[in-house]
Each structure stands twice: as C-alpha cells, then as structure tokens.
Amino acid sequence: MNANLLQTPIDYLKGVGPNRADLMRKELGIHTYQDLLNFFPNRYLDKTCFYKINELQRNSAEVQIVGKITHLKSVEQKRGKRLVADFVDDTGKMKLVWFRGQKWIRENLKINTPYVIFGKTNWFNGLFSMPHPEMEPVEEYKKQLRTAMQPIYPSTEKLAKSGISDRVINKLMQQLFIETKGKFIESLSREIITELKLLPKAKAVFNVHFPQSQELLTKAQFRLKFEELFYIQLQLLIKNMLQKQKIKGYVFDKIGDNFGEFYQHHLPFELTGAQKRVIKEIRADLGSGAQMNRLLQGDVGSGKTIVALMAMFIALDNDFQACLMAPTEILAIQHYNGLVELCKNLDTTIYLLTGSSKTKARREIHEKLENGEIDILIGTHALLEDKVQFKNLGLAIIDEQHRFGVAQRSKLWHKNKIPPHILVMTATPIPRTLAMSLYGDLDISVIDELPPGRKPIKTVHRYDANRLKVFAFIRDEIKKGRQVYVVYPLIQESEKMDYKDLMDGYESIAREFPQQQISIVHGQMKPDAKDYEMDRFVRGETQIMVATTVIEVGVNVPNASVMIIESAERFGLSQLHQLRGRVGRGAEQSFCILMTGHKLSNDSKTRLETMTATNDGFEIAEVDLKLRGPGDIMGTQQSGVLNLKIADIVKDNQILKSARYHAMQILKEDPNLSLEKNKVIRFTYAQVAKHKNIWNYIS
C-alpha cells in the first residue's frame, strides 16, 4: 500500500467534509487518514447476542433485540411531550421512549418494519422500556461491515452536540478501510511475531476497529500495545547506548585513601546490602570510560547521603573535585552539616555556596575552587552561575532531581572540558514501570532497605471527633522532650480558605498549648522569616511546628517524633509519604497521625488505608500510580513522554516488561539494527525517531 495515502488530510475522506474535518482536528487531533486509523476505541459493547423480550432481566444491562414498531404516540408530561412506541417480537411487548428529537424520529421511523434496537432497559409499571434506543432496519444491519463487538470511541461534548457519534466514526472508519484496502506494512520482525505469536499488523489494526470475536480483539490489542511500548523502549535504550558511546567520561580507576580511610575507620554504621550493591554499580560506571548518568532512588531515610559521599571519595581519590546541588537552601545546609560531621576526622575540604553566601565568602570560594583547594562544594542553584569555575570537576550529584529543569542540569555538564559524571538522587519512589518509561535512558539504582536500628513509623488515621485524645497524646510526647509537626493543606498559595485553615489551626494549637513555643511556616512568608522559624525548630527552641507542605522536602530534625497531617484526605499519596518522612529520623519511636472529617471518597479511603498499612515507598508509589495515572504523577514536564495511544503502563506493565526485554535482546545482538532480519525494525525506528511518536507514521 502507498504509505503516502495515509498522510492525506482527513477533509478528503468520503463522509467528512470541511466542517467535520475542522471539528475532528480541534477536538480529537485527527488531521490525516493516519490519525483516524490510530484513533483507538476505549471500550467495546458486546453485540454477539440477541435477546427476546421475555428473556429480559430487571437490570440496567445494554441489550440488543429484533422486533417491529406497531404503534407510535405523543404523551403530554409536566414539561413538554415524550414520544412512545410499542415494540413487539414473537414473545412479548415493550416500550421505546424519546424525550428529544421527536419530530425527526416520527418522520423517519417505519411502522411494522423489522428493526434491530440496542440500549439500556428500565422496568416500569409491569413493562420494560428503552429510552433513546439505537435503531437500524434489519435490511441495513445485514449490509454493514459488521462486528460482534461494537467499538466505542473517545468523544467530547462538542462532538456529541454536532452529531459526530460512534456510529459516524464507525462509518468513517469503514470508509478508510475501503480506501486503503486494509493493507498495512508490517512493522515488527518475523522473529518477534513468531516468538510472541502476534497477529500480523493488518489483521491487528482491522480487529481493533472491527473485532470479529473477543479472542481476536484481545490478540489485536496485545499486538498494538506491544508495538507501541517496544518502540518507546527501543528509543530510550538506543539513547542510553549512544550517550555511552559518544560522551566519554573520566576514568576513575583508583580506589585510594579517602574512600579506604572512611570505609575502614569512620563509617558511623554498617552499610546495608542495598547500599553496598549501589556503591558497586556506581564504581563500575565511574571506571567504564563512559559518562555516568545514574538515577539513585531511595526512600526517605534509606541512606542515600552516605552513598553519595562514597562516590565523591572515588572522585577525590582520582584527583577530581565533586559537587552536590540541592533544591533549597535549608536542604543544602543540612547536607553540608551532615557531610562535615561525617568527614570531621578526614583531611577533606567541604564548602557551602548558596544565594545567601556573602560576597567575601563567595570570592574565597571562587578562588579556592579554581586552584583546587576545595574538594567538595555543596550548594543550591548558586552552583550553576558562570562565575563558579572548578579546577577539575569529576562528579556532580543532584538531589531531588525533579525540582531542577533540564537546562539547569546541563549547565553542570559544562563545568569541565569532558562532562563530569552525573548522579541524580530522589527520595520520591518511582514505580518500576514508570521509571522504565520515563528514565529508561538512565541507569537506575535502588536502595530498598532501611539502615538497621530505624524503627518503622507508626501511622494511624483519626477522625476530627478524636481531636482531644490526639492533643493529649501530643502533650505526652512533648513531656518526653519530643517535637511535633502539624501540617495543613495549602493547595494554592492564594486560596483564602486554605490560608484560613492554617491560621485557625495555629490559633487553636496556641490556645491548647499555651506553655509551648510554636513555629509557623507557610509559602507566603519571606524566605528569611521562613528560615528563621525553621531554624528555631531545628535548634529545639520551639516544640511545635505549624506549617503547610513547604516542609515536604528537607529538614532533618531527629528529635521530631510526631507528624500530624490535618485534612489528610486532601493530600496525594506521595505527598503524605514525603511528609511522614520528616519524622522517624532519630532512635525514638515516631508517629504519623492522619486527621480527617467523616465524609471520605473511595480514593481518599484507599490512600489512608495504604498509608496505615505500609511504610514502603515503592508499594505506596504503585498504588498512587493506579489511582492517579502517570501524567499526574510526573507533572506536565514529563507527561508528554507517555502520550500513549493504546497502551496503559499501569494495566499493561507485563507487556511493558516484555517489550523492554525484547528491545534489549535485539540491541545486544545487533546494536546498529543492521542485520537483515531487523530491517523492518530499523525502518520503523527511523520513522519513529523522526516523528517522536510511533503512531505518526504508517508502518
């Protein structure tokens, strides 16, 4: 088939015309024959079965019946009229009802002519009725390109109002298959098709739009989902491969005094098996000669900082400098204090550079950095300034990487002639399927166990009615010398209602705990005031911190053992998990109390049950992915990557794993896709890479 035919503007398809074409472009993004072909149904109605009227059940199932209209009349009602028809078959009688479009229906319906009707039934006054049924004369029904399963396509209000119904889309699809003769070029290799027993491309495309049976529909969907995910994975793996070939990295082949001395004599605790595994993976990268691009995932408190420090020691042992960039000043200061404490018995020079650093201190840092007197520089975005020049930067570590844009990260690349090795860290667990699709071009390490001695945080759900008991519990904890967070939702900084929540909360806490010092932190405060309040809490001058989610990332206060989250039903799962991670940092037992009203949606109940059942961030992330979908979790910045047409990375995660496995096997054997058997894949991949989307070309 001529591939160019599918690039024909949709206006030229018989039955479309300029007005419909305009609507389809605006509402559905359908510009060409190709786009229509890849406009997939989102569900199907099973029309394999015809019912007799005496077989109907009193449920709201959608059914299909063959019969005749014997009588038609208008019935007055409170507002306007309704049109009612008697519909009979050889077993009984039912009513068909229309509340709108009556004039057209009256003019077009034929009495005593056999019709196929389809719709939901109601039981009323001893008779079944069907409002606004789909109807087609039996004669017409037999002529159609008919399928057992009727596809239902995504729609919009505008389309429905303009009469572009499923039936219209279905007819346009039939026309498209007539014009293209249903012949589509194969886009997967014979080897994959045989091994996975996949339907041929043309048969899969046909059966997704006109399924001939349940079995063929299932096979068609599997084939097209696999293909979509396979080419996404192929793109990511090839990008990773090219990066390693093209971008040379410094070879850190020495493990010397810094690493050895710290590991042998100054490690404050035994490393977990997961930490040792991740350090091994990083060591292999740093010695490979290719630039490292690794994502380090580890739940709150899993010990990513020690791993980062060990990686920095490897850079130092090979006569290079290292830097660590954090998204906020508080977090940068915390990293700085933590690393200085860990390195106090070593000859390692560590400096801190933030937006608040004084001019004199900056000058000193710039000078010492350039002459190599600084080993490790910790800082915020201030590290990216052009004035900040290293003598020999070998490793750059980025904490909470999702808070930095791509442009900011690439500035670090240019801090040396050959780009430094990059390690990005996140405490936001990313479900494996999502990580494979979004960060498939990065190598991923996971720290999936907590250091020994850490007690799991006890999480409970309490209703507002139990507030006095919760206050009594807070009093007991403060008497033991502990500190408490009370967090309120501030969904948008400008929402007056939410701001009022926080201020009301602060006042009620102040009334309830008149003896205690209380800090308050929210997004409308000036940074200095915010830092001052945070600092008082960190130093233990205040016992209670009333805050909004601004404390979600950062502050390490080992003495804080209680986290109260007000209106917990208004938070997402990952946010609740991040907030909970603010406590449980000391040796004492810590608690997280989720406060809510009594009215809870099903999703809210699921979130609260998940939080009380587990402390495992990856388990929580999987539930979150099921509840919210990938787009919401990654935010707008990333969601374009997963603009999937037919696959769903939550429901189809097994297909995704299979697609990645097969893409890896092919590249292992044939990295340039130059073998004859992979010719089809090479051609399709070239098209995909050109269009950035597998469905933008005909395969």
Automatic annotation (TrEMBL):
Gene3D superfamilies in the cross-refs: Nucleic acid-binding proteins, P-loop containing nucleotide triphosphate hydrolases
Organism superkingdom: Bacteria
Molecular function per GO: 3'-5' DNA helicase activity; ATP binding; ATP hydrolysis activity; DNA binding
Catalysed reaction equations from the record: Couples ATP hydrolysis with the unwinding of duplex DNA by translocating in the 3'-5' direction; ATP + H2O = ADP + phosphate + H(+)
Domain spans labelled Helicase ATP-binding: 285-447
Residues covered by the Helicase C-terminal domain: 466-631
BP-aspect Gene Ontology terms: DNA recombination; DNA repair
Keyword entries, A-Z: ATP-binding, DNA damage, DNA recombination, DNA repair, DNA-binding, Helicase, Hydrolase, Isomerase, Nucleotide-binding
Enzyme class, spelled out: isomerase
Enzyme Commission numbers on file: 5.6.2.4
Protein family according to the UniProt entry: Belongs to the helicase family. RecG subfamily.
NCBIfam families xref list: PRK10917.1-3, PRK10917.2-2, recG
Physiological role: Plays a critical role in recombination and DNA repair. Helps process Holliday junction intermediates to mature products by catalyzing branch migration. Has replication fork regression activity, unwinds stalled or blocked replication forks to make a HJ that can be resolved. Has a DNA unwinding activity characteristic of a DNA helicase with 3'-5' polarity.
Protein name: ATP-dependent DNA helicase RecG
